[in-house]
Design brief:
- The protein is α/β, with parallel strands linked by helices.
- The protein folds into two domains: 155 residues, Double Stranded RNA Binding Domain, CATH 3.30.160; 137 residues, no CATH class.
- Helices cover 47% and strands 16% of the residues.
- The chain contains nine helices and six strands; from the N terminus they run ββαββββαααααααα.
- Strands 1, 2, 3, 4, 5 and 6 form a six-stranded mixed sheet that branches.
- β4 and β5 form a beta hairpin.
- α6 runs antiparallel to α7.
Amino acid sequence: MKKIIYILVFIAAPMFAQETNNAGLSLATYMPNHTEYIPASAKKLLVNKLGQLIVKNGISENPYQSRFVLVPNVSVLSKDITPTAPAKTVLVLDVMLHIGDGISGTLFASESIELKGVGNNETKAYISAIKRLSPKNPAVLEFIERGKEKILSYYNSNCSSFIEKSALLESQNQLEDALVILTNIPEESTCFNKVKSKINKLYLKVINRDCKIKLANAYAIWNANQNIEAAKEAGAILVEIEPQGSCYNDVKSLHSKISKRVNELSDRDWNYQLKVLDLEKSYIKAARDVGVAYGKNQPRTVNYNVRGW
């Protein structure tokens, strides 16, 4: 009888250099529970391998904002002990991969990959098998492509609702949430052309508001007590302000003022450097970075619906 193994793991942060050519299209790795049957080291390797499947096939690995998930179900097809000395453990695993909408519960694509591993013990046999899960496997490539097509279709079909929801959140001053909705739309989708200008305007609105709030906080800290400790607190705020912000000249002025005072108090440089405008970074990339940073600070408990996958 097959032993079914379900894994519940969130990848805390992107773990690989992103090799994406489909900017904005993202997946989160999600694995439902019961980890007791799989060794911890093998489970960690499986998490890494799934991350590779995502980024090596042109998708961003995004555990913070994505409603779309890559879900593996692992079953043990057979387990044998060789009659050799020393004895070896031979495992044959069936890794069933699923891509779908984890919020609505809609399954987009599935693929079964059979993996065989041999090791001195069961843990090493698991590791040996999972190492064979390759992002270049033709079946994996075709599976990922089917999933991508379904995700793009979802965005194209629901474009109007994204625009309306973002506008509603913006009217309620939930600017980051509004921005996240738009920046999650893949650039390859037809919907993206309809929201590009909206992303730029909303991004500027976010950083302008952020600039004013952080500058006011830094001023309050510095004016209350102009000592080294206050300089450190104010400096930590100032270095987080984006240089495109409308109040950035005032940010530079306060930064210069604090730096001069620190030098007078301690006869040493103040090591808080302001951000420099990156002319190579597009506003789309900058807006996505704001969205990712915002997502990292939000609660990450997501009740994905993957029943029946």
